[in-house]
Design brief:
Helix content: 25-40%
Bound molecules: zinc ion
Order of helices and strands: HHHEEEEHEHHEHEEEEEEEHEHHHH
Oligomer: single chain
Length: 318
């Protein structure tokens, strides 16, 4: 087990493997080691090596997994529509995966939020012919130098072509490839720029980073995110789906309504544990030492955001 290369595993594989405690022990040190160089370089390195896996969902909708956030793809006569663009280092493998779906050119790109693991590919996808649509705050953050304290990283403004030209505040509708797409802004949750994308006829929803399926989420307090916002967004997601809805999370394997329930329960319980510790005067390090996430770590603590890191993210917001 120790010789397995983590970066070659898809998140789907990883979640399955991580279900076993022995595997979790084998993997954890590699992640901790990788994180010493920072989360952003770690994500880019992983994307540089990862194979892109394609999962057909329903009708003409598929998901590509392996380059930062999950990429939704809608194929058809109007050209491919992508939801998020992954990391630029994955371009040849993303193109290969897209070409295996159909020969349509890329004509539309929607960003679920501004983070680099969902927008780094914007420049090449735009050059390939896509018009870019996003929330107005995605354009704002991509247009200026933006610091994310939680990643200890400052992002420079992106090139002009990578900036969304069509932006909206609350909601936006697009008709493309015989599909009605409903784009809706969340109240600030993971960031202030999060949107959901519903593919109406197929009953599929891409919820961006308001759901990390089976793994502790990153919460970006620097651009409007908060634990309370994440819980509120999850309640909204729960009321927006049925048992039949297919859910594309920002990270982790394809999800469903139950995934939101499990995510909500995890967020609410850990928030309560951390808030109690903080209320009793515990410092951040004392709170982390008290292991407020312990009951969830075996399942949720095996990816980029470690139990200690997640406890710290919650601590900032209670
Ligand atoms: Zn994100």
């Amino acid at each position: 087990m120790n010789n397995l290369d983590l970066s070659s595993l898809s998140r789907r594989d990883f979640i399955v493997v991580a279900g076993s405690a022995a595997a979790a022990v084998a993997f954890a040190p590699r992640f901790l080691f990788a994180q010493k160089k920072g989360i952003v370089p770690t994500m880019i390195d992983a994307a540089a090596k990862a194979t892109i896996k394609t999962y057909p969902l329903r009708r003409n909708i598929s998901v590509l997994e392996g380059s930062g956030g999950n990429i939704g793809v809608l194929t058809g006569k109007d050209g491919k529509l992508l939801v998020d663009s992954g990391f630029t280092v994955s371009k040849p493998r993303i193109l290969e995966a897209l070409n295996s779906l159909s020969s349509d050119h890329i004509t539309q790109l929607i960003n679920t939020h501004w983070h680099i693991d969902h927008t780094d590919g914007n420049a090449w996808v735009h050059s390939a012919g896509a018009a870019i649509t996003a929330h107005v705050d995605t354009r704002k953050h991509l247009s200026t130098s933006t610091r994310v304290e939680g990643w200890q990283y400052t992002f420079p403004p992106v090139p002009a072509g990578a900036i969304p030209k069509t932006v909206f505040d609350d909601a936006y509708r697009v008709h493309h490839n015989d599909t009605q797409l409903d784009l809706k802004h969340y109240a600030p949750a993971h960031t202030d720029s999060d949107i959901s994308v519903v593919f109406e006829e197929a009953d599929v929803i891409h919820v961006g980073d308001t759901l990390w399926n089976g793994i502790y989420p990153f919460i970006d307090y620097s651009t409007g995110g908060s634990i309370n916002g994440m819980i509120r967004a999850t309640e909204g997601n729960l009321s927006a789906v049925t048992d039949k809805t297919i859910v594309i999370p920002g990270h982790g394997p394809i999800a469903n309504k139950t995934s939101f329930e499990e995510f909500r329960d995890m967020l609410v319980t850990i928030r309560r544990n951390v808030a109690t510790l903080k209320k009793h005067g515990n410092s951040l390090s004392a709170t982390i030492a008290a292991k407020p996430t312990a009951a969830y770590d075996a399942k949720w603590g095996q990816f980029l955001i470690t139990p200690a890191k997640f406890a710290g993210l919650v601590y900032s917001g209670v």
